[in-house]
Amino acid sequence: MTNNSERQTQLAASWAEIGTKLNNIQVANISYKDIMLALEQFMECVRYLNTRRSGTKLSLENESDVQDAIYLMIRPWIKDLVYENPTSKVGNRFAIKDFISRSSKTVIEAKFIRDEAHGKSISKELHDDIEIYHHHPECDHLIFFIYDPNSLIPDQTALKTEIEEERIYSGKKLNCYLIIKP
Fold it and tell me: CA dihedral in degrees (88, 91, 97, 102; nearest 10)?
């Protein structure tokens, strides 16, 4: 009986090891580009849920709602996705990064444009985030996902150009990307 018990323990350990290896392979295959492609499908997912006959509705009324929708959308594919994790303190400030995938060195910051004033000031908010994240050792790619349901950002093209410029800080490159969805 001890022999069976030992064999079962060895088999369980082998399966656990294989599972870990498969998970690591899946995690390693996800890149910031894959994450961006998934985020581009955000409105399709929202539209699908909101037009189903079952009555299920996805209400996106604030930033937390947008974060929840993003998490549900991409978590099955990004095995190491972690949400709401504070960054290290920089000076007297720190940020709460919405999501991070350490394997792809990608941080996702979700924003919800609340009103006209927020639409006009979002550029400053994004630049403040960039200043914090360029110090983060696990952030090579910073993806800003902005849900702007009422199209309150005055010039989306100019904002995209401003945010997506090449940035190098003390020899470390920080790639910033901007996705805006209505």
Answer: -40
Question: Do 6 and 60 belong to one domain?
Answer: no
pTM: predicted TM-score of the whole model, two decimal places: 0.79
Distance (Å, rounded) from C-alpha 35 to C-alpha 15? Answer: 29
**Whether residue 14 is found in the same domain as residue 54:** no
The span from the CA of 179 to the CA of 103, in Å, is 21
CA of 106: how far to CAs of 35, 172, 176, in Å?
A: 9, 14, 10
Same domain for 22 and 98, yes or no, is: no
pLDDT per residue as tens digits for the range 144-154: 999 999 999 99
Task: Tell me the C-alpha to C-alpha distance, in Å, between residue 69 and each of 9, 108, 151, 180, 181.
Answer: 40, 13, 19, 15, 13
Q: Which residues touch 55 (CB under 8 Å, ≥6 apart)?
A: none
Domain that holds residue 18: 1-30
Q: Within 10 A of 114 (CB to CB), how many other CB atoms are there?
A: 15
CA-nearest of 126, 95, 113, 125 to 153 is 113
Quote the CA–CA distance of 114 and 76 in Å, as a whole number.
29
At 128 the pLDDT is 94
Total domains present in the chain: 2
* Contact of 22 with 98, CB cutoff 8 Å: no
